[in-house]
Amino acid sequence: MSQTIAVLKGDGIGPEIMDATLRVLDALDCGLTYEFFDAGLTALENHGTLIPAETLEAIEKHRIALKGPLTTPVGKGFSSINVQLRRHFDLYANVRPAISFPGTRSRYDDIDLITVRENTEGAYLSEGQSITDDGDTALSTIRVTRQGSERIVRYAFELARQRGRKKVTAVHKANIIKTSSGLFLDVAREVAGDYPEIEFQEMIVDNACMQLVMNPQQFDVIVTTNLFGDILSDLCAGLVGGLGLAPGANIGADAAIFEAVHGSAPDIAGRKIANPCALLLAAADMLDHLDMVDKGARVRGAIREVLDSAREQVTPDMGGSGTTDTFADALVAHLQR
User: Fold this and answer.
1) Residue 54 has what pLDDT?
2) Helices assigned H by DSSP within the chain
3) CATH code, residues 118-224+235-239
4) Are 115 and 233 in contact (CB under 8 A)?
5) Which residues pair with 94 in a beta bridge?
6) d(CA 333, CA 219)
7) What is the mean pLDDT of residues 185-194?
8) pLDDT exceeding 90 applies to what percent of the chain?
9) Residues of CATH 3.40.718.10 domain(s) within the chain?
10) Which fold has domain 1-111+241-337?
11) 1 confidence band (pLDDT: 50, 70, 90)
12) Cα distances (angstroms) measured from residue 177 to each of 51, 151, 172, 228
């Protein structure tokens, strides 16, 4: 069965790592076809807008997109492209796996956890933000709803059930932020009752940060609100070597966008030394989403094997002497054995 996906190559190193990723997907013979659309600085130059209407229409039509890193220009008048996409398609679940791979610069070698972050409300609302005329006082509203909390926590438990995970930890600050964080925690407790086979744990966010540094192996699936999830997911990426190994999925009822969560790295664009792993791992998560779990596992296995045994072909940030292209060459060769 053929599946067409909308491909947004991105800015900076985006086209380089996307080309490498599509080569690997093609080597798997997944039956995927690609339609390419502009977003970010390329779209601004070609269309006068960061996200053209035809790009949004393509994602709506195909319901699946693979996205390279995009640059939002600095300055007033430009809002985050990622935030716009999440709101437009109601991509309420941000899913960030953190998995250890060999040969990485990290102090742990046995991390395997997932952060599930509520993606559409919480502290990241543009509405409700203001600053007084004298510039001395800034105000910001945190908006958490029962519906938003229920669907993100249920998503986390369903994900745990599907992937054979044993525990879900709800991270909160209900001891101090008793309204918004308290509502999230109350709903998490209610939803947990529907999944008696999965251990439920609740943890205050500051303690969760400490525990992740001291004993990350105790975690399995973490579910939390928007701001806390943004911070914790990057912390978890640090446990496995950084954002170069950090894929992200933004999931809604009608669309899903898979991405590398790192930036566009314009300082190394064109030098062919960008690490494609984050986008490759996002593509593997996309294959899982498309019920091609075995092929997603093959991508992760190929990355693991190449990082372990073909050091000369991996990129310098991973301790190798290779390029983006030689990394892809090694992965394709492994998959075609």
Assistant:
1) 97
2) 14-27, 41-47, 53-62, 81-88, 146-162, 180-192, 205-214, 226-239, 277-289, 293-309, 324-335
3) 3.30.420
4) yes
5) 117, 250
6) 35
7) 98
8) 90
9) 1-111+241-337
10) Isopropylmalate Dehydrogenase (3.40.718)
11) low
12) 36, 21, 9, 13
Q: Which residue has the higher pLDDT, 261 or 1?
A: 261
Residue located via tokens 């996309």: 286
- The phi, psi pair for 169, rounded to 5°, reads -110, 120
Q: How far apart are the first and last CA of the chain?
A: 24
Which has the closest alpha carbon to 260: 241, 246, 239, 242?
246
Give counts: helices (H), strands (E), the chain: 11, 12
Sequence-distant (≥ 6) Cβ neighbours of residue 217 within 8 angstroms? 110, 111
How many C-alpha atoms does 334 have within 13 Å on its Cβ side?
22
Instruction: Print burial letters for 192-225: b (CB count within 10 Å at least 16), e (below 16).
Output: beebeebebeebbbeebbeebeeebeebbbbbbb
Cα separation of 337 and 329, whole Å? 13
Amino acid at the residue 83: V
User: SS3 helix, strand, coil % of the chain, rounded to 5?
Assistant: 45, 20, 40
* pLDDT greater than 80 at residue 75: no
* Tokens coding 327: 């990394």
Output the pLDDT for position 299.
Answer: 97
Residue 47, pLDDT > 70, answer: yes
Backbone angles phi, psi at 224, to 5 degrees: -160, 180
Instruction: List every span in the chain annotated with CATH 3.30.420.
Output: 118-224+235-239
Residue 111 has pLDDT above 80, yes or no: yes
**Contact by Cβ (8 Å): 43, 52:** yes
Determine the 3-state secondary structure of 158 from DSSP: helix
Looking up tokens 């992740």, which residue turns up? 212
Rounded to whole angstroms, the Cα distance separating 203 from 221 reads 12
Q: List, by residue number, the catalytic residues.
A: 124, 173, 206, 230, 234
pLDDT of residue 125: 79
* Of 176, 225, 222, 179, residue with least CA distance to 201: 222
Q: What is the average per-residue pLDDT within 145-169? A: 97
The number of residues making up the chain comes to 337
Element (H, E) at 200: strand 199-204
